[in-house]
Write a structure and sequence with these properties.
alpha/beta; Rossmann fold; Dihydrodipicolinate Reductase, domain 2; 2 domains; 6-stranded parallel sheet; globular
Amino acid sequence: MGIRFGVIGLGKMGLLHTAIFNALDGSVVSAVAEPARLPRSAVKHFLSSTQTFKDCGELLKSSVVDAVVIATPVSTHIEIATECVKLGVPFFMEKPLARSSAEAKPLMQELAKHPTIHMIGFMTRFVDTFAKVKEILESNVLGEIMRVEVGIHVGQVFTKGKGWRYDPEISGGGVLLSQGSHLIDLLLWYFGKVAAVNARVTSLYSEKIEDSAHLMLEFESGLTAWVDCCWSRRFRRTVETSIEIQGENGLIIVSDDTLEFYLDKEVENYSAGWTRQTAVDLYRGVEVDIGGPQYTREDLHFLNALKNDQLATPGIEEALRVQSTIDAAYKSARRRGAPEEVLSIT
């Protein structure tokens, strides 16, 4: 049977992880928890042996799962994850970590007392093109990094949105926290900690959250990066993520689908001039592809961590750095773009 997973929350991401973990070799979805009847009934129809619960607390105490996926609204993340740690249940939790870094304090304290295997779902790290950029940067063939510009855009919000994602009391924020957190995670993964942020945010269609955000990040290394996020860009049917990295010996231009890499001079195994690769060229096969191979890879990473009793990444410390950076951005935006120091996690 393998590792028994429980899935808490049967929205888009909960259903996605249900399908993946139930298809992977070495895991099975043995239970789900969701207050709404319709998605519970659908899971029961297709997975007749899976137990269904209205309340996640009942699932966690049922002894029918070995680990859980938390795919609930952001405001519930910390409470559920903290209960998992108290009960000794490993958890995979969808990003963002919380509505703010301060809100995550109880989970940090509980994990310090009772270390538990866990992972936060920043799936963009597992996209082939962005993973290749990490490899190139670690080779240091670009030399000193001089300039970084990144963006994430989609045509999603053109009217007043309905549901919890548009209520800051539940979601914690708009496009910056929801989608921009993927960019912030990549940048921290690539370049280390951010020291300070200047930010402006704009509500184009939403009343209480931002639909557009523009940030300047100053890293502890002295590097500066420009970040632009918007989910109200016309004619962008799917999410488009783009990164441009300029170094003293070359340039990287990367998106979800393509990687263009230029070097002024040859370095070790990297040739001078342009190297162009597509996602197809870089594709690493997965045993099941539902929604994109990156979701399978992150779920496999967590599954292997459980099998081998090892840490999974990104974990809470990395997620807290993302959260602290975004906290600083929101504070800066409230001060009309004045610089805001990123508080260190403790």
